[in-house]
Each structure stands twice: as C-alpha cells, then as structure tokens.
Predict the 3D structure of the following.
Amino acid sequence: MGDKEAEQKAEPGKLTADQIAVAQKWIAEKGPDWRCPVCERHQWILADHSVRLQVQGHALGGLGYPVLPIICGVCGNTFLFNMVVMGLEPSLDEQQKGGANA
C-alpha cells in the first residue's frame, strides 16, 4: 500500500498533500479574482476533508458525488466543487475500468 492510500485509510475523506496542491492550482486557474457573492471578499479556505453528496434512493455509502468544500474565511459562505471535474478523484467509469485498485 502506498503512502497516499495509507493516509486516506487512516482518515477517510481527508485530503492528501497531492490533492491539496491540485485543488489550490485548480482554484487559482479557474478563479484567480473570485470573490464571495455574499461579502465580496477574496479570502478562501480549502476544507481538510471531502464530502460525498448521496444520491437519493441509494444506500448510505453507495452512489454519490465527491465534492470539495471551499469556504469564505470572512462570512462562511461555502461552495461545493465536484472532485472528478477538479481532477482529484477518478470518474465512475475510470473506477470501473481500473477494477478494485482504482
């Protein structure tokens, strides 16, 4: 088991150092001047853990969308960004093609 896998098994949902770097780069590229629509400030906090939006009708822990909360450090307004689109998690198709090791 690699260091990344060991880190995630130790605390499920916690972002790895690699994921944090990718997320920070993605945010800087997509919204370098991104301001909070509530308080109009530019002070963002990347959450330490991912969140899974559960699909209705599926068992807990089943089908869901992995999202990364990004929080305004001034007013607490929170955005949820899809981790597959951000390049932080493999898509369902990629997971199925890669088998159990994806």
